[in-house]
Amino acid sequence: MQGYTINQLQVGQQASFSKTISESDVYMFAGVTGDVNPAHVNEAYAQTTAFKTRIAHGILSAGLISAVLGTRLPGPGAIYASQTLKFTAPVRIGDTITATATVKEIIPERNRVVMETVCRNQENVVVTTGEAVLLPPKESVDK
């Protein structure tokens, strides 16, 4: 993995990470965070909701954004400063989610990069959008 410095980034540059969300991902996330909302962990309850089945925690898709930012672009050594999120569609167990981050703005004097972030499912439906601000590494990190 390579971490990009502010001088190595270009507006429009992008990277992605994909993962199929499993039932165990949802249960492990519930266990780690304590969010055991029945919409996520109880199928009988979830069938009474608008979604008619269990859905993954919205913030789980944000974790995939974090994977892109921390491992691909800017990558290792980058510090995640902020993230806005809008959850636009449910993520169901079995969905394959692709998180993509695109360089939107580079602020060299503050060593900041603004990234547009979006997650889409296997049908190309946008499930999460937002904007992240990161501090790229000061020197290239090669791990």
UniProtKB/TrEMBL annotation:
A GO biological-process term: fatty acid biosynthetic process
This protein's record includes keyword Lyase: yes
InterPro entries, alphabetized: HotDog_dom_sf (IPR029069), MaoC-like_dom (IPR002539), UPF0336/Enoyl-CoA_hydratase (IPR050965)
Gene Ontology molecular function terms on file: (3R)-hydroxyacyl-[acyl-carrier-protein] dehydratase activity
Tree of life domain: Bacteria
Residues of the MaoC-like domain: 13-118
Keyword Methyltransferase (UniProt): no
Keywords: Lyase
Protein's name in the database: Acyl dehydratase
Source species taxonomy: Bacteria, Bacillati, Bacillota, Clostridia, Lachnospirales
